[in-house]
From TrEMBL:
The chain crosses the membrane at residues 25-43. Keywords: Membrane, Transmembrane, Transmembrane helix. It comes from the Bacteria. This is Outer membrane transport energization protein TonB. It is a single-pass membrane protein. Residues 66-181 are annotated as: Disordered. It comes from Pelagerythrobacter marensis. GO terms for cellular component: membrane. Its main location: membrane. The keyword Transmembrane applies. It is found in: Membrane. Residues 97-112 have a biased composition (Pro residues). The lineage of its organism: Bacteria, Pseudomonadati, Pseudomonadota, Alphaproteobacteria, Sphingomonadales.
Length: 249
């Protein structure tokens, strides 16, 4: 190889490898990025305030504000008119009404009473007198009928005391508190005056404070007192009760 003056020294040894290669684009970009990062690191180290303000400006420049469209609300339904009539309902169809047939009750025949004027027996008609038992004007049984012959009815006249007496000073023992302890008290006894005028079945009807004196009174009434007995409507003597009051003065 010559350059017009003669051959170039060493040209034959280099050959085609001596031609220059063009640098690649990616390599240049990588080298530039490394330089920028190196400069940025030095700036952050020595001037942090400056690099902070630059970063904020760059973020504000690339900030994108996204505005969402307003949500569409559904349109409100129109309020019904209070004076408007509602929808017509279904037409009512009446159902047939069938009344149940009432059951037929057959009553038994009512017997017809017999006439009071018929019949041959004395007990079949409404006669004034008859042979059966009834409330006749007179009768022969016991009872209180006007014409009866039995021993019915009660005493009409009460028994009356006719004789005998009881001395409250001599017939009763002296109580523990003296006779003044019994003074002003009384006892009532009940006896049955028999048809012979004597008293029996004595009981204390209303006692006094002295039970011993009450028992003595019952004994003395039955032993000493005599009575005119009670009588019925025919004047017959009958037994009847009698109440004797013994007072201590």
């Amino acid at each position: 190889m010559t350059d017009g003056h003669g051959p170039v020294p060493g040209a034959e040894r280099a050959g085609y490898t001596a031609a220059r290669r063009r640098p690649r684009l990616g390599t240049l970009a990588l080298v530039a990025l490394l330089h920028v990062l190196a400069i940025y690191g030095l700036a952050r180290a020595f001037a942090p305030d400056f690099t902070g303000s630059v970063e904020r400006q760059m973020l504000e420049a690339i900030t994108v504000t996204v505005t969402t469209p307003p949500e569409e609300l559904p349109e409100p339904e129109p309020e019904p008119d209070p004076g408007a009539a509602g929808e017509a309902g279904r037409e009512a169809t009446p159902r047939p009404v069938t009344a149940p047939e009432p059951p037929v009750q057959i009553q038994p025949p009512v017997p017809v009473p017999r006439a009071s004027s018929t019949g041959a027996a004395n007990t079949s008609g409404a006669r004034e007198t008859g042979e059966g038992t009834g409330a006749g004007g007179t009768g022969s049984g016991t009872g209180s009928g006007q014409g009866g012959g039995g021993t019915g009815g009660g005493a009409v006249n009460k028994p009356v005391h006719v004789s005998g007496s009881i001395d409250d000073a001599r017939d009763y023992p002296v109580p523990e508190g003296g006779r003044s302890a019994r003074r002003g008290t009384q006892v009532i006894v009940r006896v049955i005056v028999n048809p012979d005028g004597r008293a029996s079945n004595c009981t204390i009807y209303r006692p006094s404070p002295d039970a011993e004196a009450d028992r003595i009174t019952c004994r003395l009434v039955q032993e000493r007192l005599r009575f005119r007995p009670a009588t019925d409507a025919a004047g017959n003597p009958v037994a009847a009760p009698f109440y004797w009051r013994q007072r201590w003065f």
